[in-house]
């Protein structure tokens, strides 16, 4: 008799009352694990085999690229809104995928839906290909009979993220190019130009200017220990990334990033809160109970310090507290957030209030990013140009000192 091998899966889920849970479940495969969770009355937000690397939303061989995920939700929303049944709509979307791996993944979702699974369960069964808010909002739409509206909210979320990402990439391309070219010029000077001048000055008994001596010393240091310094820097980066994977260290580093980096911390916090409030608004508009919506929205916050604050807010709300008071008790949340939430609660328009707040945060984030990026190029040009100009000035000063000796 053959015994089927069982695998341990780690999962994150919410129940009908909004109680978040995570744990380990043993099943033959991911589909069986999702089925077990659904039988327990849990909506899986993420599930993956222990020891497996998390699938990245940016897309791998077995996942969807961001553009493909956006195309999936946008096309599916249009088709369902037009009256297409879910299963044939998924078939049409799968046929439109350019990459075979993407088409196969959508085809697997379609097969699970055809077998009787909900769309949320089919999405959760794909590992980390879909983020928690994606699965949670789809589950809410299915439960409330408003799947088309839920998919429309998801399409808006994905489009906003794609626009911001493209805007950031476009704005950083030119400064990055300037930086790379300048660093290449500095490397050429340190590796080739400065050694030539060292030979020139070595045969002279003239006392070199302090700036010239400093530049030659730095060039000699880079020439001798440059590869070692690069290797040490690479090891330091790897050690930092490894430390960032430790939960306690990551929590400390994320908190420090928010409170100790000034404008950068505010920009990061606003970006995370904009995603949190927009996701929460979309979930509440789709009919999700507040406690469940808070659990799902908190799962999409990448910063561990803010995610912890969001989870404490969820616990306080489940305990009977108003959302505005729970938010006010968290120092990492800005005070204006709690004030706007209090106003929205008084007027019984919490979803719309959250949506308006997310738009305000996104607009301020965009303005702050524009101001920062408008300063990056001139500052980078001045700093790096000053470094190159300083090196040339020091070398010229050294040559002039040789001429003084000759005279």
TrEMBL record:
Membrane listed as a keyword: yes
Localisation per UniProt entry: Cell inner membrane
Predominant location: membrane
Domain Type II secretion system protein GspF, residue spans: 73-195, 277-396
Record-linked InterPro entries: GspF/PilC, T2SS_GspF/T4SS_PilC_CS, T2SS_GspF_dom, T2SS_GspF_sf
GO BP field: protein secretion by the type II secretion system
Highest taxon in the source lineage: Bacteria
Cellular component per GO, a single term: plasma membrane
Signal peptide: none
Record membrane topology: Multi-pass membrane protein
Alphabetical keyword list: Cell inner membrane, Cell membrane, Membrane, Transmembrane, Transmembrane helix, Transport
The keyword Cell membrane is annotated on this UniProt entry: yes
Segments traversing the membrane: 171-194, 225-244, 372-400
PANTHER family: GENERAL SECRETION PATHWAY PROTEIN, TYPE II SECRETION SYSTEM PROTEIN F-RELATED
Similarity comment: family membership: Belongs to the GSP F family.
Function: Component of the type II secretion system inner membrane complex required for the energy-dependent secretion of extracellular factors such as proteases and toxins from the periplasm.
Designated name of the protein: General secretion pathway protein F
Organism: Nitrospirillum amazonense
Organismal lineage: Bacteria, Pseudomonadati, Pseudomonadota, Alphaproteobacteria, Rhodospirillales
